[in-house]
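[Automated response] Your request has been received and processed.

Submitted sequence:
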Amino acid sequence: MSQIKKLEFIPQKQYMEKALQLAEQAGKMGDVPVGAVIEKNGVIVGTGRNRREEKQNALCHAEIEAIHEACQNLGSWRLSDCCMYVTLVPCPMCAGAILNARIDRVVFGADDEKLNHSALEVWGNSGWQSTQLFRNFMQEECQTLLKEFFSNLRDTR
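Generated structure:
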């Protein structure tokens, strides 16, 4: 009897590049430049970008927008077999939403030193869901976008 070998997951650059484009749009609108893309079987099923300033709503994070759109497109709140690409490590609120949506994998670019990895603790302490995390994918591009945004913000004050 032959054994079926499970393929190792390899993050795909084109999805993070799309997330970076969305992050750039958020930055141009005055929001912290964060973008998110949800992919399933090679197809983008959800996208989002930060819109907290634009909509004056604390819930308008890129990850939440992407989850909302993916649920609508797939007709289900269960997003198993999906992978989220996000330019910045998700906050605890978004980490909880990712767990509740049953997203299998999260690939993120930049760490958030202010969060002190509390979002990662949400995943680590959730005994009921295992989300695979892939850190620092295209980290330099993601960090550069954030650094430029905050540098420009300081220069205009």
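Summary generated for your ticket: The mean pLDDT is 89. The chain is about 40% helix and 20% strand.
If you did not submit this request, please reply to this message.
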